[in-house]
User: Fold these one by one.
Assistant:
Number 1:
Amino acid sequence: MPLVTSKELLQQAQKEGYAIGAFNANNMECVKAVIEAAEEERAPVILQVSQGAIRYAGLKMATAMVNAAAEEASVPVVLHLDHGTSFLQNVQCIHAGFTSLMYDGSAEPLEKNIETSAKITEIAHAVGLPVEAELGNIPKIEDYLSTEEANELRGRSPAEQVDALRAKAGPQVEALMADPGQAQEFVSRTGIDSLAAAVGSIHGMWDDIWPLRRDRIEALQKATGLPLVCHGSSGVIRTRAEAKAKGIELKPNECTLEEAVKIGLCKINVATIISITFLRGAREAWDERPMEKDLRKILLPGLKAAKELVRSYMRLFGSSGKVTGPARVDASEVKHAE
Ligand SMILES: [Zn+2]
């Protein structure tokens, strides 16, 4: 089916208390992994193109990949710009055929962020497209750890990793969170459709161990009434049971990804952990067959591993089973035939 906008998907998700997974269109295999999982789960899905993907594949190629996949799909697919850097880039993406936009002005002074977000929203709304904008600052793990420090930390137990991160990054991550009063003003002065608010997550984490701030999500939801978007979700602990199994203790004002969906997260971006899972799948295949000459035979196990993780996130978010129409006829095994 043709691409749909994120507005209709997110409004429905907000009404019914589930979230739409937003996954990255980094290459053809990632696009196929996400679409196949969405097909099989009967889940609406967002494929997003990041700044890295635009540099890697080019805007034209990335757009064409998602368009082709959506056309063949029997579930609603959105083509979303992730962390759009400027007014210009957002306009270019409208022209390219995106059905959902993002402007990230979080590094700008507040007034400049409001001004550019409002300008993009006015133009996007004129052609029926919704806009996500960012408030507060969602940091990345590289802001706190060097590569050596991160590698050393990854070797420790999940509970030790969380303790070390709380000491190293905790106060600053808290200080960067979006302020509910400011969010209310931001939303009313920009007219945006969804809000990427900093609620305690960190971009680029290698494992799901880190909690979100329940109190801040609740306050932002109350202040804005908008669908909230969670960035940096790869690092967020998924459920209470998984926290317990990993020996991670949550504080009273913290929550898991599963709980955060129930209190207002409607779009959840998961990138890093899907990428790591893809690479692990491919590496295992190559370890098993080091003399393999056909790259497809190494990439396909990566695709399948990524697809299973995407599927598990769709189930966690409650978006599985939300599409009622008939599934596409061809099975993935047929599509994978060589
Ligand atoms: Zn992000």
Note: Residues 295-317 form the longest helix (23 residues).
Number 2:
Amino acid sequence: MQTASAPSDPLLSELRSIVGSAAVIADGDRSKYLVDARGWFSGAALAVVLPKTVEEVAAVVKLAAREGLKVIPQGGNTSMVYSSVPDDADCAIVVNLSRMNRIREIDREASVAVVDAGCVLASLHDAAAEVDRAFPLHLGSEGSAQIGGLAGANAGGTGALRYGNMRDLTLGLEVVLPNGEILSDLNGLRKDNRGYNLNHLFIGAEGTLGIITGAALKLVPQNRTNAAAFVALESPQAALELLGRVQDRFGTSVNAYELLSGNQIALCEEFTEAASPFETQPDWAVLIEISDPAPDAPLKDRLENLLGEEFEAGRLIDAVIAQNGAQSAAFWHLRHAVTEANVRAGYSTTLDASVRVSQVPEFITRCSEMMRAEFPGVHPLVVCHMGDGNVHFIALFRADEDEGADRQAVINRIQELGNGLTVEIGGSFSAEHGIGRKLTGELERLTDPARYATLKAVKMLFDPNGMMNPGVIFPEPGQA
Ligand SMILES: Cc1cc2nc3c(=O)[nH]c(=O)nc-3n(C[C@H](O)[C@H](O)[C@H](O)COP(=O)(O)OP(=O)(O)OC[C@H]3O[C@@H](n4cnc5c(N)ncnc54)[C@H](O)[C@@H]3O)c2cc1C
């Protein structure tokens, strides 16, 4: 057997014979594949391999199994939890799916799309729109994130309130198992009760059980009318109460209900080109989007009426309703500018908490108080998919106020405090980003033993030799 630390030319030659010479990158600048999206984690690999077909993926995996190589499945490499890059042990191959990017089929009548795993989300949006359908998953990384990576992470995004997360939008998968066999379930069935749902195991598995090579996905009717508003409010509690009334009035037409703290909006203005819609910065704001497939639905008027009533009743401070598509796009630009703003402002760590929607205000209050008590210099920011109870609580330390603290120790402590609080109130500390390498210790610490043992048993069943994405979800021995 080949020693993993010294890649022989024969090994690289064999990889090249499977995928072609240009699709094996063994030297040069490979940072695009080996450094995570935010530049915080980097690793090493024997080679980055870019297969183009499911057969090539299967052959690469069989070779890796034979040679005892670790395999890191990779899509757009936008993971927030360092799950798509190898560690620095230099004994892995990164299998990047970018070249496997075909839309295989779109069945308009069935509202089903069958795509390669390397298809970029924005390309699927375009392809669905061409046949007057939509794939309703939307997030800030949609220009880079791929279907395989989105399934691997079970991504949520801003439309999860109405359409669910990636699991809810997936009808079936094609997967290369760690032994190189291909499991195919791409018939696009809406009902199928043949035993356990294996697709659900691979969704959210973060590449630890196999490599997804294709997916059958649900499409929905295109929305033809939209209304968007930014609403200034006094508190998260006021936002929660307004959510109920918006849902009473608009039912399932509510696409997004995103809560932002005022200091987060101010940071976006300070560090990016995004502009606040408000003349006076409020403490809290929600971005509401309502849409409907009917071309003539009077959504804007109805939203204006509701917000007018709310204003009259003294339940909101201000509301700006988008008058056209450009204004609505500017609202979303501000919402999606948060990552860039926070990276520029200093260093931060983000909680990915999932709590019951009704507990969002309590969680935000308790978490802010807890962080301020221990870290007086912290700026608690909130970016929250409020409609589904997903709170991204961001503890930010500004670069221009840097007190020279041990950053890693601060981040660890904040994660410990915040994740502990989330679990204490019955929530999950990983709502949509996954566990990755970032939260392996927290999964072990905060999961009840029966659940943790069952998770491990599933991993052992599919991947007894631990070759798929080692160090992700479960820590490797000695992993920090
Ligand atoms: C600006 C920004 C905004 C974001 N906003 C959101 C948001 O609102 N909601 C949200 O849920 N997430 C968000 N994310 C993170 C989100 O997880 C990723 O954008 C997306 O899900 C990952 O897709 P990717 O193709 O980049 O996958 P990668 O980052 O490459 O991989 C993600 C995980 O999936 C695995 N994987 C990749 N491809 C495959 C495959 N073919 N088969 C099996 N496993 C695979 C990887 O090993 C890894 O564990 C955001 C990220 C950024 C940078």
Note: The chain is about 35% helix and 20% strand.
